[in-house]
Amino acid sequence: MADSLAQEKQGLRKVMAAARAGVINAAVATAQANAHLIQFLTQHYGASLPHVTLSGYMAMRGELDPSATMTAHAGPVCVPVVRSAGQALEFHRWTPDGVMVPGAFKALVPAQSDPLVPDALIVPMLAFDRSGYRLGYGGGFYDRTLAQLRAQGRVLAIGFAFAEQLSDRVPYDHRDQRLDAVVTQNGVLWPE
């Protein structure tokens, strides 16, 4: 059963990586998605938004880029840092003018370590479905991290992807964590 799930996920990864690469006018879609994300965060948190520690990510492999939202955020912003395989992510403070260096999997990470605990995570992905399940690259980093953060208290997990990455169904098991919402260039999707 585990092998068939892994094969199903791998097949969907290939299909959705191609769908993401084929997004027409990605720059316009990115600007629209960031506008929706900023509006979503403002409506969700209201006056407390400047006190929210927001985790973004450094886009790579054609991911939807959340840097406009990260830059616009009035509160602390951090990005994920991979410690090692099989572990939850750490989050280090990010600023628009901070020095970044290549980290694990060639993702850029802050040169200076300043750990933070996020209240809200902008989560990258290859695919998502209407139930709030996401498909990542297979390392399980966000699933472990969300499970750990949710066990410590409430954290908001916001998927961020192009609308073209919507799948009829994302295969999942008990380790996969659902997203609280997904934001695309078309607006906000609330899981069913």
Characterization of the model:
By secondary structure, the chain is α/β, with parallel strands linked by helices. It has one domain: Rossmann fold (3-Layer(aba) Sandwich), CATH 3.40.50. The chain has four helices and eleven strands. It has helices at 2-21, 26-45, 67-72, 141-152, and strands at residues 54-55, 77-81, 90-93, 100-102, 108-110, 120-123, 127-128, 134-135, 156-160, 181-184, 187-189. It has a seven-stranded mixed β-sheet with strand order 3-2-1-6-9-10-11, sandwiched between helices. It has a two-stranded antiparallel sheet with strand order 4-5. Strands 7-8 form a two-stranded antiparallel sheet. Strand 1 (54-55), helix 3 (67-72) and strand 2 (77-81) form a beta-alpha-beta unit. The radius of gyration is 16 Å and the shape is globular. The model has no long low-confidence stretch (mean pLDDT 93).
